[in-house]
Design goal:
Structural class of chain B: alpha/beta
Order of helices and strands of chain B: EEEHEEHEHHHEHEEE
Strand order of the largest sheet of chain B: 6-7-8-3-9-10
Strand content of chain A: 15-25%
Number of helices of chain B: 6
Helix content of chain B: 25-40%
Distance between the termini of chain A: 41 Å
Radius of gyration of chain B: 17 Å
Structural class of chain A: alpha+beta
Helix content of chain A: 55-70%
Oligomer: heterodimer
Largest interface: A-B, 25 and 30 residues
CATH class of chain B: Alpha Beta
Strand content of chain B: 25-35%
Radius of gyration of chain A: 34 Å
Largest sheet of chain B: 6 strands, mixed
Chain lengths: 387, 227
Amino acid sequence: MKLIKRIRRNMYAQLAERNLRRQKVRTILAAIGIIIGVMAITSMGILGNTLKLSVSESFSDVGDKLVIYPAMGEDSVTQDQVNRMERIAGIEHIIPYRSSGEAVEYRDETSYGTVYRMKESDLRQLVEIESGRFFKEGSTDCVLGSSVASNLELDVGSKIEIEDTRLRVVGILKERGMAVDISTDSGVFVSHDMYSKLYPDAEEDYRQVIVVVEDIALVDTVKTELEDTLNKREKKIEIFAANSINEQIESAFQSISMFLMGIGSISLLVAGVSILNVMLMSTMERTREIGIMKAVGASRSDVLRMFLLEALILGIIASLLGGIVTVVGSFTLIYFIMGDITYFFDPTTFLYVIAGIFFGIITSLIGGLYPAWKASMMNPLDALRYE
Amino acid sequence: MNSIVEVNNAVRTYRMGSSKVHALKGVSFEVREGDFLAIMGSSGSGKSTMLNLIGCLDKPTKGTIHINGVNIAKLNDDGLTDIRRDNIGFIFQQFNLIPTLTALENVEIPMIFKRLGPQKRRKKALKMLELAQLGREYATHKPGELSGGQQQRVAIARALANDPPIILADEPTGNLDSKTGKGVMELLSDLNRKGKTLIVVTHDPKIIEYSNTTIYLQDGEVVDEID
């Protein structure tokens, strides 16, 4: 408040304020241009960002995982390799498994699923149980993914048949949706013993290994470490980082945001031109006044400063208004359309608002630059004679 | 007394398309500190050009003009601005006040460009208005709300704002009725008696009654000089 008082006492500012008030309608129209421009780029940015956040949120649960599978020409990931993985820092869990696509029968119904040989403790790391419980190691029980269970319309306690072997369903998993590691929804999870019973020829080695990293920020480090350790001499394994999908989504939405903001910035450009127009008209009208100012001792830089200050004041007020209107407007819009405003309060939202205000002010200044320069270069004699 | 304005063989030629207009064809004179000089001449005599040159609004094509010892022919735009701001107080025929500002603020304008603080400006502006004999109650009036005589007094106060040694007036009574004009001229000669060097450009012979030196210009040349 003290600062505002001080600015208001500044004579340049007083002159600028008065000159802006002199042509109220014109000033307001120019300000509306800036307000719309700021609103356009800011709201486009916020919209893009909110979309990005809401989409990438649904993927973030797998972002901390690496999927390791044998390289071309290799059959499987060996226990020895898994042991070596365990020595790498930053890994929370290593989940090796073997799997096989299979028809699952229940009464007269058949559904296709994937049978997984996975430790019960590892399975717990990946999914949650919807009803029932996880299987016990060594038992002949199984746990079903949600889509297998719903396809076959069965419940906990039902008996299914795979390759003429009967298994008891002890648990049904929660739906997990799209994932990059394994599709648990169509999975049939069994213990090592049961898997050996189903596939007596099955090797001990693993088809794939899921590595859960302690912190999502460590994904790249761990990936490099794994490469260094396991692919030292020849390429034995391939690593797929789940976060690369996140990155792709993020960059796709980043582009969308940029594109939307680009469209928004066109309106800001138009606003800049209208500022240029308003200020230019104002310098023409005030030619004589500029002459007087110069006659009584205003230097070129004094005149330049006076006019730039006008553009700056106009820009600051209009941009701030634009920023406020955008925050309120997009909050309301997102609230009514998406019904979820958590993404709105993301710090990036406010970054976009600040950027929008900043660009609004810069545009006004640039728009005011040429007229101010023109005014400052006026010859006082010609200016005084101007009618 | 020292000479404060020294004009030496000043020539000013304007280019009007392909032809040249010789506004001043080599004018020389000097003005001493505390002088009251009237420059007389009909329109087209070159008196306005002379005023612009002394007022540092323009530079001579040839010759020299020294203001307070500085040759303005050699200065650039900023240099001219500095000389003008510190040495010259302008009074115009059409008053040339800024319509959006009050009388007081108009007087403050030159002091802004001299980088004076707001309090000092206000105090000094009030003092200058008093010196120009404008009632205090008019200080907050806009030019449009003042009579011609009052406006010219505001302009005189503005001319005095930065304490310039030279007051330069261009037909100061030209837009005023004779009674008001007389009042303004008495104020100006009073300022001259208090030490200001006064240069008045006019075609009004009545002004000669107040001046102590008069130069007559005709076709860009000095045709007569009366002390």
